[in-house]
Amino acid sequence: MTGADNATGAGKAPITVLGAGSWGTALASLAARHGHPTVLWGRDADAVAAINQHHENTRYLPGHPLPDNLVATTDLAGALGGAGMVLVVVPSHAFAEILRALAPHRPAGAGVAWATKGFEPGSGRFLHEVAEEVLGADVPLAVVTGPSFAKEVVAGLPTALTVHSDDAGFAQQVADTLHGPAFRAYTGDDMVGAELGGAMKNVLAVATGVADGMDLGLNARAGLITRGLNEMLRLNQAIGGKAETLMGLAGLGDLVLTCTGDLSRNRRLGLALGRGQSIADAVREIGQVVESVQTADEVMRQAERHGIELPISSAVRAVLHGEITPADGLRQLLAREQKPEYPVGLFG
Ligand SMILES: NC(=O)C1=CN([C@@H]2O[C@H](COP(=O)(O)OP(=O)(O)OC[C@H]3O[C@@H](n4cnc5c(N)ncnc54)[C@H](OP(=O)(O)O)[C@@H]3O)[C@@H](O)[C@H]2O)C=CC1
Ligand SMILES: O=C(CO)COP(=O)(O)O
């Protein structure tokens, strides 16, 4: 696919995407295909030159032609100059740094959305809390999340995701930019639930990956996904997110995708650990961001803060730190006391 799917761009808001990895490139490609004048900012000059000259991101999405009207640059101020909307798609460890860098160049009126999944490492803050602190309370903010592998989106395969914001008009603007012939973008107003779902599913994908790597069978996989969803729902309720958010694309949808789809880097990390590989070797082989490595710590920090027990997430965190082996984790989970599925209703 090399041209725009939709019109010529006349009247469409210019979009600036920050982060030229697999997901930033796929989302920029989508906006460009929908006729938005789109600029993709990346920090790697060679990668940027290859996108402009060969219309391909050879490192992160090799073999997928990008639209001719997608322009890449390493010039952050230039990229932001004419932006009608900014979409941040860097890993969570770089999120605060990129927001601080973009803040002085953001045109007044340009809202800031992000498709990053995770928390601020170290503090465990939600990304919308970081964004509000750096950009101020008046800037429209939104989170883009849901079951969406970059490789499938850039290939034009049908995908559905969701955009959550406290500002309904901005959620709609972001959704309108992404929505198109093969892409459904829904909206919602629950940033807490949307961000928690996107972060926790990465940790739970490691758990199902480990189980599959240990050949524990399909029953174990389904059990982990379901009890994992329960962990998401309980922590979400304690923090103040809406249950329906986690029963939708931002929770269950992304959990199923990431726990079962081998395109998931977090699942692949779990598979490797379950087969006895070291975490360092597995992460090196994957060669892209694996958010669970940091997110497991931050999920458990949130859980401790709110007094919620999360046995699967806790076992993943301990395995990722080398405190226990995958086999120990399995033994711990199976040895837990027998109890009602819902001791105190859905959220017990
Ligand atoms: N890939 C996917 O299918 C999806 C990913 N996401 C989320 O999107 C986020 C980005 O992931 P993804 O694109 O897949 O990751 P990748 O590993 O594919 O790419 C990471 C990109 O971030 C850049 N980067 C890393 N650190 C910095 C920094 N300090 N400043 C600027 N750029 C930086 C890298 O640049 P360089 O190459 O120079 O190192 C690279 O371009 C993650 O939070 C992920 O969970 C969400 C949904 C789907
Ligand atoms: O978030 C994703 C799909 O929605 C991508 O998952 P991974 O980061 O595990 O590859």
Automatic annotation (TrEMBL):
Subcellular location: Cytoplasm
SUPFAM superfamilies linked: 6-phosphogluconate dehydrogenase C-terminal domain-like, NAD(P)-binding Rossmann-fold domains
A Pfam family hit: NAD_Gly3P_dh_N
UniProt-annotated catalytic positions: K201
Record-level Gene Ontology MF annotations: glycerol-3-phosphate dehydrogenase [NAD(P)+] activity; NAD binding
Alphabetized Gene3D superfamilies for the sequence: N-(1-d-carboxylethyl)-l-norvaline Dehydrogenase, domain 2, NAD(P)-binding Rossmann-like Domain
GO terms for cellular component: cytosol
Domain (Glycerol-3-phosphate dehydrogenase NAD-dependent N-terminal): residue spans on this chain: 15-169
Enzyme class: oxidoreductase
Domain Glycerol-3-phosphate dehydrogenase NAD-dependent C-terminal: 190-328
Reaction it catalyzes: sn-glycerol 3-phosphate + NADP(+) = dihydroxyacetone phosphate + NADPH + H(+); sn-glycerol 3-phosphate + NAD(+) = dihydroxyacetone phosphate + NADH + H(+)
Binding, sn-glycerol 3-phosphate: K117, G146, S148, K201, D254, S264, R265, N266
Presence of keyword Cell inner membrane: no
Protein name as annotated: Glycerol-3-phosphate dehydrogenase [NAD(P)+]
Gene name of the encoded protein: gpsA
